[in-house]
Design brief:
Blueprint: H1 5-25, H2 30-38, E1 43-44, H3 53-66, E2 72-75, H4 76-80, E3 85-86, E4 95-106, E5 117-129, E6 134-135, H5 157-165, E7 172-175, E8 181-183, E9 188-192, H6 206-219, H7 228-235, H8 240-261, H9 270-274, H10 276-285, H11 287-306, H12 309-316
Parallel strand pairs: 1-2, 7-9
Antiparallel strand pairs: 2-5, 3-6, 4-5, 8-9
Helix pairs in contact: 1-10, 2-8, 5-6, 6-8, 8-11
């Protein structure tokens, strides 16, 4: 639940920045922006925790806009524990970090009920500061060393193939049928044969793999995995078109981020282009749509990384 105007306004600010990128360059804007951000993922400056979902996008925008050298952030109290203080002129310039908070809500219980309260989750924000906003003269904290090693080192199709092939429970079918899709009721991905993806370099083209990653993100929404389909269908029960548009945006954001990590150029899905205008409108005006699109795309990627067979083998060893 998002019941704070401050939280809603902060979310809408993130959404409007994404909408501006979509209006100007379409989905192509995600690659240069996220490539820069993924090369140095936003982190908690004290714990090293990597921010994801809405916070990944928001804190990446903040770094770009403010030209910070490092996307590192921590609360005023956390900085104080390492002897750092916020500069007086920066105290009011903290940046929002989103998190969920659980509250118990009391109500007048009926006679046949034992409990008189229930738990509700609220999306809240805390304020954080970048090291460039601090006085570090008496602090034990120091700036990290600059590493010149690129994150996106994988340049071959086999890495993507292995990532897909090692997904536990995935059924992947191929035929000459000129369609690529995920069938949720039968729970399988269908891809047209690689040879049908025309490419000057090879039949096993980047276009094939980028399309496959889009369908793989859809695959994560099944009730056996993240349960995203059921949750969103229930939430958008009176807005079927909006629910479908949201799912396409989740798949495109997720596939784009995966393509960037594999150093690939994402082929834009035709359905995505068709829904681009509705995304822009929703991102500008709907805080719930923004949160779901960014957090659920991050959740899909997180599921895929944890669902690799090699990870399961390590746990059972």
């Amino acid at each position: 639940m998002i019941n704070s105007k401050i939280t809603k306004d902060a979310l809408l600010s993130v959404g409007r920045q994404i909408a501006a990128g979509l209006e100007q360059d379409g989905l192509k804007w995600i690659k240069p922006f996220a490539s820069q951000s993924l090369a140095n993922c936003p982190k908690n400056a004290i714990t090293g925790y990597e921010y994801s979902g809405v916070n990944f996008w928001n804190l990446s925008f903040i770094q770009v806009q403010n030209k910070f050298d490092f996307p590192l952030y921590a609360s005023k109290n956390a900085w104080a524990k390492v002897g750092a203080t916020v500069k007086p002129d920066q105290v009011k310039n903290g940046f929002p970090i989103f998190y969920w908070w659980q509250n118990k809500v009391k109500y007048k219980k009926p006679e046949n009920e034992e409990q008189d309260s229930y738990s509700r989750w609220f999306l809240k924000i805390t304020w954080a500061y970048n090291p460039d906003q601090l006085d570090l003269s008496n602090s034990t904290w120091t700036y990290p060393k600059v590493e010149d090693t690129p994150v996106n080192k994988v340049k071959d199709n086999m890495a993507v193939f292995n990532f897909v092939d090692n997904q536990q429970g995935l059924e992947l079918k191929h035929s000459d049928q000129p369609r690529c899709y995920y069938a949720p009721e039968l729970d399988y991905i269908h891809m047209t044969n690689k040879i049908n993806f025309k490419s000057k370099k090879s039949c096993a083209s980047f276009e094939y793999y980028s399309t496959l990653l889009h369908e793989l993100i859809h695959w994560t929404g099944h009730k056996k995995r993240t349960g995203r389909f059921e949750k969103n269908l229930k939430f958008f029960k009176d807005h079927k078109r909006k629910e479908y548009a949201l799912e396409e945006l989740i798949a495109e954001i997720g596939a784009n981020l995966l393509c960037i990590q594999f150093d690939m150029q994402k082929k834009v899905n035709k359905n995505s282009l068709a829904y681009l205008k509705s995304w822009i409108s929703a991102l500008k005006n709907d805080d719930v749509f923004i949160y779901k699109a960014l957090s659920q795309s991050a959740g899909a990627i997180d599921f895929l990384k944890k669902n690799l067979k090699e990870n399961k083998a390590k746990k059972s060893a």
